[in-house]
Amino acid sequence: MRRAAVFRLLTAAGLAVSAAACSSAPGSAPDTFSVWDPYPQFAGDSEWVRTIEACGAQAGIKIQRQAYDTTDLTNKVLLAAQQRTAPQVLVVDNPVVSTLAEAGVLRSNSDVGLDASASSPNLVAAGTLNGKTYGTPIGANTLALYYNKAVLSAAGVDPASVKDWASLDAALAKVKAAGKKGITFSAIGTEEGTFQFLPWFWGAGAALTDLSSAQAVSALTLWKSWLDQGHAPNSVIGNTQTTSWQEFATGEYAFAENGTWQLQNAKKAGFEYGVIAIPGRTGGTAPAPTGGEFVTVPVQDDKGTESKAAQIATCLTGPDRVLATDTALTYVSAVPSVQEQQVTALPELKVWVEAVRNAKGRTGDNLGTRYPRISQPLWGAVQAALTGAKTPDAALKDAQAAAASAK
Amino acid sequence: MRARLAAWAFVVPLVVYLVVCYAYPLYTNIDLSLREHTVRTFVYGGAPLAGFANYATVFADPAFRTALLNTVAFTVVSLVFQYTIGLALAVFFARAFPLSATLRALFLVPWLLPLIVSASTWAWLLNSESGLVNAVLGIVGAGPVNWLTSPSWSLVSVTIANIWIGVPFNLVLLYSGLRNLPAEVNEASALDGASGWQTFRYVTFPLLRPVSAITLLLGLVYTIKVFDIIWIMTRGGPSGSSSTLATWSYELGFGSPLPRFGPSAAVGNVLILMALAAGLVYIRAQERR
Fold first, then answer.
1. For the domain with range B62-255, which CATH number is right: 1.10.3860.10, 3.30.1160.10, 1.10.3720.10, 3.30.565.10?
2. Residue A384: its chain B contacts at CB < 8 A?
3. pLDDT tens digit sequence for A253-276
4. Residue A407, class by beta-carbon neighbours within 10 Å (0-12 exposed, 13-18 middle, 19+ buried)?
5. Of residues A9 and B80, which shows the higher confidence score?
6. Could you tell me the pTM of the whole model?
7. Where are the alpha helices (DSSP H) in B97-182?
8. A299 touches chain B (CB under 8 A)
9. Which branch of life, at top level (chain B) (predicted)?
């Protein structure tokens, strides 16, 4: 009796350990593929999941789909790759692609027979490292300025008059004079903050290779002047893009810098809204950073598995299927012909399609994995300047020094 | 023989647990901090040993000084207020009165709430534009304070939130400590003509010392590694003004698309050493008594 008890105890302990250690099943060419994506908002019965399953069925593969929070996904994939349990197909945020490629986690398109040539080159650039492209964009989003029609008309501002920074400033001054609030955005000390700052940074003509240029300083000075004059609330320093949207949704604000993904929420906001492109300093549309994910093929031990995975990736990003996915995500398609279809179906997307055509990848210009080392000091500088801890000039000089020293 | 086997069998689960959940992660963290990792070596192995280069990088970073000072200030101020308020409430509740049990249960709410809820609630309350605190200040006639977005207030704000969360823990431990004190001593001091304050100062408080010591030690270990509240409320910002070693370690390791595992692990180890030092001080103090 007692021996049996001891035996049971030991078995239980042993099982617990082996269960913890061996959750992965090694082997070649599994008949079930795992697909990881950063879309936890889509449940198992959504159109997106049905699309994945259909693409799997086309390749004769059963699909096990797993959704992660987008900020979690990078680390989850790195850890899984370390344990040789990376998913067969990975949908991942575009600035992360070069990091994962650098880590040797992803196969390049030429290795597995994936083709990204149907997508716009400015979007594919984010997934290109040292002349090789890793994955295909599933769609794109970017930033523009939402405006509240009632607030603007009460202040006597015609949104079409906002063509450059000077006219935007003038519009903000009129809004303030009318007793409403000007503009809200997100300047939080994370990648989100840099993402939101880049349209102004690039719109001034600055480049990520030189954070302390006069153009860069002018962009940061613009933001700082909005806070000083009360055109933008102090809360932008801590705002995520979601909290910034919540401020705009109160109906008190004239403008909000936000993304394609808020279109559904904008319809629910309960007031009339419009969208204009973010103006460059002296006019024209400022290049906004591209958002959106790439469908990629992680490295596996087996060539056959990789090429099957590439088939599924091709199917997921194929023009016939991607329209439904991009509509569900409220993304602009990466494929120009599909963009045309989207605008035909929904004319209000025209502004967004324009913005996406003008957009730039953050990791483009072959910055690749150097981008995170530049982005971090940049959001630090934005925060330091907006809180008044440093002047825009000094903050960006320090940021450039930090970015140059971190290789 | 069989008895020994059984004895070992009882030890095995504990040893396995300790090795799997403590020794191995600790070893991995030390190993991470001593190597020069890139994302590629993290996945495929083969990172060269870097000695203490990661520690040197971390110590030379101006952010380290800020994070260290913030950690100390955050921990000390939190502990002082949590303990004082917790003790005052414990003494208050030690005398049974109608509804005291209900009230005491209500004081536990901060402890029972998930941290994401309490931290988000504090973030809303303290919001510069739409927060309730600034609205109340406005009624009183005071100007708005940028609680979370001003470098001089952000650390104060997260400390206040942390004190609020930590009071129930102190209350519970100190209250049960008070209940375990022999009632005769209090009666004796009352018979000797001691005032209420004198009884507390010269009788109750000294008798409560062992409970106070363990409360403060546990509080220290919990507070020094606080991450969630700060991260949710300020992300350690603006520009590092409310970053502690815990949030800085996370920021290095997971805060950007390109992780810096070596320095991140190094900061984590510094934090472990600080907690360990506090534990040793406690054990020494226990032995001396």
1. 1.10.3720.10
2. 238-239
3. 999 999 988 888 888 888 999 999
4. exposed
5. B80
6. 0.83
7. 100-107, 109-112, 115-125, 132-140, 154-180
8. no
9. Bacteria
